[in-house]
Amino acid sequence: MRACDHDTILTNGFSRLIRFRGQAEPGKSLPLLLVPSLINRWYVLDLHERGSVAKAFVDAGVDTYLLDWGIANDEDRYFGWDDAVARLNRMVRAVRRFAGTDKVGMLGYCVGGTLSAIHAALEPDTVHAFANLAGPIDFSLGGMLRDLVDPRWFDPAAVAAAGNLPAAQMQSGFIALRPTGQIGKYVSLADKMHDPVARASFDALEAWASDNIPFPAAAYERYITEMYQQNLLVKGEHYVGARRVDLSRITCPTVTIVAERDNICPPQAALALDEVSSASEKKVIRIPGGHVGAVVGSKARKHLYPEITKWFADKLGAKTTRALLETKTEEPTTGPEAASPAP
């Protein structure tokens, strides 16, 4: 179901860096690195022909790369939050080296957005433009997910003591946020069973939602403790090694993309980036729908893809090689809004 062919250009531990094939030549413009969530399979950003962030950028002539975090094994239980930041930094260096440029564009999704913001703050000279796609910054505004891990009744150290958090355990927590979603998605599908496009989209999303991966224990414990419970990032009190993460050091143009019905990253949690950064240009894109629909739903194709690809193409100096695909009628939304997969 993937929409784009790609090549692996670097492996690092259980992660790899891939480059999507297209007509863009390395060095002709600044490259773009897509950073998906650490706790989900990467191909939500290239789910199928009519729902692919990666394809939208390739079609816009952008030299596009992606960090595939990979699957943490049992022995990776001590892979920590600092290790994730270091791995992202290493991949940014690899993209710069491969493309022959000093800077890159970055688009981070969900946890990948949080990690990308940290990188942009620690290494501002390497990021030319940054998009935060539904990545929480102010975790005190994290909604139901913040309530779920409230320190009054939730101990992340105890949860992580047994090792990596299994995919099923992670998924059960997200299902608890929308317990009727599992029923609702099939009710919605029944209304569109006659539509082959809707059924194909539903099947693709279900395959991704069922392909969950574990959360490395050490990274999970620190992420929940310092982000959701202590909210250190937006306070300027989060450290990576001995380096304090000061989000005001982000000076490049930024765009924050939020989904209006996102119960994983409520809009205000992501929009906080505008309040604390020193970005030379700030833009907000609001997409109808939920956390996953913002990426692969019909609203994403109609509203997000044209706007975000044009923004990055302009910032990175990419020359559009093919017309952006547009649709005059909305495509079926069966699946992306109802499947309720983990972020």
Strand order of the largest sheet: 1-2-4-3-5-6-9-10
Unreliable segments (pLDDT under 50, ≥5 consecutive)?
A: 321-343
Say what oligomer this is.
single chain
- Beta-strand portion reads 5-15%
Radius of gyration: 19 Å
Secondary structure layout plus pairing:
Blueprint: E1 6-12, E2 15-20, E3 32-35, H1 53-59, E4 64-68, H2 81-99, E5 104-109, H3 111-122, E6 127-133, H4 143-148, H5 156-160, H6 167-177, H7 181-190, H8 196-209, H9 217-229, H10 232-235, E7 239-240, E8 243-244, E9 254-259, H11 267-276, E10 282-287, H12 293-296, H13 298-316
Parallel strand pairs: 3-4, 3-5, 5-6, 6-9, 9-10
Antiparallel strand pairs: 1-2, 2-4, 7-8
Helix pairs in contact: 2-3, 2-9
Would you write up a description of this structure?
The chain has 343 residues and is an alpha/beta fold. It has a domain at 6-147 and 232-316: Rossmann fold (3-Layer(aba) Sandwich), CATH 3.40.50.1820. The chain is 39% helix and 15% strand. It has 13 helices and ten strands. The chain has helices at residues 53-59, 81-99, 111-122, 143-148, 156-160, 167-177, 181-190, 196-209, 217-229, 232-235, 267-276, 293-296, 298-316; strands spanning 6-12, 15-20, 32-35, 64-68, 104-109, 127-133, 239-240, 243-244, 254-259, 282-287. The strands form two sheets. It has an eight-stranded mixed β-sheet with strand order 1-2-4-3-5-6-9-10, with helices on both faces. A two-stranded antiparallel ribbon has the order 7-8. The model is unreliable at 321-343 (pLDDT under 50).
Can you give keywords for this protein?
single chain; 343 residues; alpha/beta; 15% strand
